[in-house]
């Protein structure tokens, strides 16, 4: 009974949000089922553009973090490095807002010497940075179940170190890499706090648009966007969990 | 030994963080031999094997294979292959994929033929497309063998390859492995801590203790003429009576006193099927174990017995 | 082998340096500088930014951040403990129930916060429903106060409390409870005298895992608290954007950072395997 209440607390707000995305009225009074707001969504240029930006950023940041993090996780498995693990741990415990302002301060300082401005590239770099720790954690967890004799066997059978990594270790890591990439993707596509601080004029993301709409007032279109995002992210997370346990 | 040596270790030493793992070891392995490294865990036998395989580099000494220096080369440049303790089969590849793994780095001609031949040799034909997880312990061990043998190594290194099998299977596989070695003619360097295994299979045994080789020789020689007390105690049971070593089968146990016999009291019996070991305590407190044929050993605990032996069976060994 | 390892680590080292180490170092440096002419930073070096944090105006913000985080943590504990107990005791369906707790955590934080705005607003679902039912005449002011922020934080971070508690409860030997009952303890006594004491490391870990992000929250207080519930996170953001006093914002950041790392360090020492 109690547990039912707790689960209701966790899930009902999102459920109500989703239900009202199908409301015919623009007010919070149920007036019948309609896909009107989903249709309106498809017409909204700002939303579509920011969604495309978010997707580009998330894909680029995920690719960067997944590749760099996989190599690093493997190397850290061979032998730990206090400096790298320390920095990654720091990035995990730093409150988002501080990550955001510190990146802003750092980029502005660099831009005094380089002729660059805030934009898509700074957002991608920031996202790759905070996703990196997640990737390394997942890869390291998987490597801990790896039998080092498998690599030695590959070397013994004539593979060079690189060939052993590519032909034995990477196939072993594949599900973990996919899971880590999906995690990186979800944290990237969802981020508002850090993004809003390091984004430029050309890089408004979907969460930034959602934030602006949410501040303005009740808007059923926002419910529709939210529903779509929650469903898509839910699928990605479930897939990633399954891969991690495989 | 008179034969040509395929592998030689010359005064090889290896330390791990100050701890001596292998100290000044020299070995010569004749071509085609079944050569065992025998010793308790931590004696340096596995490290020696890993030095030959190239997973570790010696701090001192030289390793020669077929007349050329081996130490310094990475594992993938050495024509030796390893059967790992837990086989280390690649879980993402099939039996076929595992066996072909090393062939990719060699000349491509005749791969299919070589794979088929080796599959026949280890009796795995028909199981090519299985994954390692679908195989029994014995089959996995044969894949590990096939994967290494297909590369035709100068020496095959085996790291306790029977220890992952259950005891029932172990004796059967022991005979098969010996038979396979004889048929294929490849030199085996075989690491084990099981003295029975080493005695049953080897042409030569090197007994190791605390990083050093204690004795090298044929199994009979090592058993009957051990060079040190350690070797004598490690292979089979050894009684120490008055400072000399005596095997249980060299002791005679009688109810009446004999010439030069010692008096003792029976303390217990260990039944081993075809033979029985009768333990007794001598008057000076020493414990000894005598072997008796089953049925001829109707001694009961508490009984007074007399123990005697031939002087020629005494082993006088340095500490 | 070592050269290969260095090459594999180099990109991660570079990325971590650019996005974690160097930015935090700059913040450290700025926190000891003065506000520049055009909103940037300048000389002289000073510790004035830190003493300003103790000013009553900002002291009130720090204090509010602290107690909002503390109250949220206590509520999470009160809600999370029975939930963790329920999951740990639900046999085969354990994993399903656990996923149901974790799943919302991975779906957009922003959207989950918006869901509460949708419910609590003056024109939101609850007020609209109550108004049309004639129970109230004026909309209840449920949004933009401390209560709304605490609600949002509890909603957001409850999984952080449930997970470590569950980890401990799940490993708890059931025969301990049977032994307590056998020795005459009633269920309530067993709970307070056996289960709770054994859960102490989990409670500690969960409390810190909830308290630290609550202390550093920005989005929840920004959206649900409005201008009335300014917390440290909002103070920091404000100094770096509209107020353009970077050195002071940097000092506030470092104070927050120090509190967070100290707490997490303490937690790591007390219950390492849970974090």
Question: Could you explain the architecture of this structure?
Answer:
The complex is a heterotrimer of chains A (246), B (319) and C (275). Chain A is mainly alpha-helical and 246 residues long. Chain A has a single domain (2-22, 48-244), classed as Orthogonal Bundle (MetI-like fold). Chain A is 79% helix and 0% strand. Chain A is globular and about 70 Å long. Chain A starts with a helix and ends with a helix. The mean pLDDT of chain A is 90. The model of chain B has no long low-confidence stretch (mean pLDDT 90). Chain C has a single domain (60-274), classed as Orthogonal Bundle (MetI-like fold). A two-stranded antiparallel ribbon of chain C has the order 1-2. In chain C, helix 4 (94-106) runs antiparallel to helix 7 (146-171) and helix 10 packs antiparallel against helix 13. Chain C is globular, with a radius of gyration of 23 Å. The chains are: A mainly alpha (246), B alpha+beta (319), C mainly alpha (275). At the A-C interface, helix 1, helix 3, helix 4, helix 5 and helix 6 of A face helix 1, helix 3, helix 4, helix 5 and helix 6 of C.
What's the helix and strand layout?
The complex is a heterotrimer of chains A (246), B (319) and C (275).
Chain A: H1 2-19, H2 36-43, H3 45-78, H4 82-93, H5 96-111, H6 120-143, H7 148-156, H8 161-190, H9 193-198, H10 206-216, H11 220-245
Chain B: E1 5-16, E2 19-30, E3 34-38, H1 45-53, E4 60-65, E5 68-69, E6 80-83, H2 95-100, H3 111-121, H4 137-149, E7 155-159, H5 167-184, E8 187-192, H6 195-201, E9 204-209, E10 212-217, H7 219-224, H8 229-234, E11 239-241, E12 244-246, E13 252-254, E14 262-271, E15 275-282, E16 287-293, E17 304-308
Parallel strand pairs in B: 3-8, 3-9, 6-7, 7-8
Antiparallel strand pairs in B: 1-2, 1-4, 4-5, 9-10, 11-12, 13-17, 14-15, 14-17, 15-16
Chain C: H1 2-31, E1 34-35, E2 41-42, H2 48-53, H3 56-88, H4 94-106, H5 109-120, H6 125-132, H7 146-171, H8 174-182, H9 187-198, H10 200-215, H11 219-225, H12 232-240, H13 246-270
């Amino acid at each position: 009974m109690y547990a039912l209440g707790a689960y209701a607390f966790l899930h009902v707000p999102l459920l109500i949000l989703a239900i009202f995305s199908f409301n015919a009225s623009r007010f919070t009074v149920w007036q019948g089922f309609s896909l009107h707001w989903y249709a309106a969504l498809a017409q909204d240029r700002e939303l579509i553009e920011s969604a495309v930006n978010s997707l580009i950023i998330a894909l680029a940041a995920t690719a960067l973090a997944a590749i760099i993090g996989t190599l690093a996780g493997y190397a850290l498995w061979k032998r730990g490095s206090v400096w790298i693990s320390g920095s990654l741990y720091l990035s995990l415990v730093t409150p988002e807002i501080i990550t955001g302002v510190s990146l802003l301060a750092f980029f502005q300082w660099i831009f005094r010497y380089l002729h660059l401005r805030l934009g898509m590239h700074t957002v991608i770099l920031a996202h790759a940075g905070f996703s990196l720790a997640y990737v390394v954690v997942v890869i390291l967890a998987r490597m801990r179940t790896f039998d080092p004799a498998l690599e030695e066997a590959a070397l013994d059978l004539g593979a060079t170190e690189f060939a052993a990594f590519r032909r034995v270790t990477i196939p072993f890591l594949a599900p973990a890499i996919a899971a880590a990439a999906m995690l990186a993707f979800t944290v990237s596509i969802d981020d508002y706090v850090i993004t809003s601080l390091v984004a430029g004029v050309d890089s408004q993301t979907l969460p930034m648009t959602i934030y602006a709409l949410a501040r303005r007032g009740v808007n059923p279109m926002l419910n529709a966007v939210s529903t779509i995002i929650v469903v898509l992210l839910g699928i990605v997370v479930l897939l990633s969990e399954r891969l991690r346990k495989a | 030994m008179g034969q040509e040596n395929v592998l030689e270790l010359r005064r090889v030493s290896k330390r791990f963080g100050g701890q001596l793992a292998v100290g000044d070891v020299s070995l010569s392995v004749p071509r085609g031999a079944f050569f065992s490294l025998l010793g308790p865990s931590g004696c340096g036998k596995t490290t020696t094997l890993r030095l030959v395989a190239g997973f570790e580099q010696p701090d001192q000494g030289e390793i020669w294979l077929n007349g050329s220096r081996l130490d310094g080369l990475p594992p993938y440049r050495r024509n030796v292959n390893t059967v790992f303790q837990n086989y280390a089969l690649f879980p993402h590849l099939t039996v076929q994929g595992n066996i072909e793994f090393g062939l990719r780095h060699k000349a491509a001609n005749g791969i299919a033929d070589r794979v088929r031949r080796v599959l026949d040799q280890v009796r795995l034909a028909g199981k090519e497309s299985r994954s390692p997880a679908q195989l029994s312990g014995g089959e996995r061990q044969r894949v590990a063998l096939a994967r290494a043998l297909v590369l035709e190594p100068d020496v095959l290194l085996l790291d306790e390859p029977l220890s992952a099998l259950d005891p029932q299977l172990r004796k059967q596989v022991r005979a098969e492995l010996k038979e396979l070695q004889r048929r294929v003619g490849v030199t085996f360097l075989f690491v084990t801590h099981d003295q029975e295994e080493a005695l049953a299979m080897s042409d030569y045994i090197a007994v190791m203790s605390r990083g050093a080789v204690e004795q090298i020789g044929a199994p009979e020689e090592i058993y009957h003429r051990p060079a040190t007390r350690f070797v004598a105690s490690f292979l089979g049971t050894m009684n120490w009576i008055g400072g000399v070593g005596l095997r249980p089968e060299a002791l005679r146990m009688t109810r009446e006193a004999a010439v030069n016999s010692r008096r003792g009291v029976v303390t217990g019996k260990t039944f081993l099927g075809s033979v029985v070991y009768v333990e007794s305590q001598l008057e000076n407190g020493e414990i000894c174990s005598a072997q008796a044929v089953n049925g001829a050993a109707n001694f009961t605990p508490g009984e007074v017995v007399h123990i005697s032996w031939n002087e020629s069976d005494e082993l006088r060994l340095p500490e | 082998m070592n050269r290969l390892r260095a090459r594999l680590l180099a990109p991660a080292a570079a990325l971590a340096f650019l996005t974690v180490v160097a930015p935090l170092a700059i913040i450290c440096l700025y926190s000891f500088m003065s506000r520049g002419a055009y909103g940037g930073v300048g000389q002289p070096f000073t510790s004035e930014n830190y003493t300003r944090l103790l000013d009553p105006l900002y002291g009130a913000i720090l204090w509010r951040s602290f107690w909002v985080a503390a109250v949220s943590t206590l509520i999470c504990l009160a809600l999370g403990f029975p939930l963790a107990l329920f999951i740990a005791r639900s046999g085969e369906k354990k994993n399903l129930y656990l996923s149901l707790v974790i799943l919302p955590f991975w779906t957009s934080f922003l959207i989950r916060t918006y869901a509460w705005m949708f419910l609590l607003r003056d024109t939101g679902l609850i007020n609209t429903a109550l108004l049309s039912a004639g129970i109230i005449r004026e909309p209840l002011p449920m949004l933009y106060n401390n209560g709304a922020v605490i609600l949002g934080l509890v909603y957001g971070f409850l999984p952080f409390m449930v997970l470590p508690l569950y980890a401990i409860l799940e490993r708890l030997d059931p025969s301990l409870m049977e032994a307590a009952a056998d020795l005459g303890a009633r269920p309530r006594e067993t709970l307070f005298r056996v289960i709770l004491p054994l859960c102490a490391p989990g409670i500690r870990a969960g409390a810190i895992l909830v308290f630290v992000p609550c202390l550093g929250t920005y989005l929840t207080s920004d959206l649900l608290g409005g201008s009335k519930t300014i917390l440290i996170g909002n103070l920091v953001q404000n100094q770096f954007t509209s107020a353009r006093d970077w050195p002071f914002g940097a000092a506030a950041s470092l104070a927050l950072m120090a509190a967070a790392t100290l707490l997490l360090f303490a937690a790591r020492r007390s219950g390492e395997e849970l974090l």
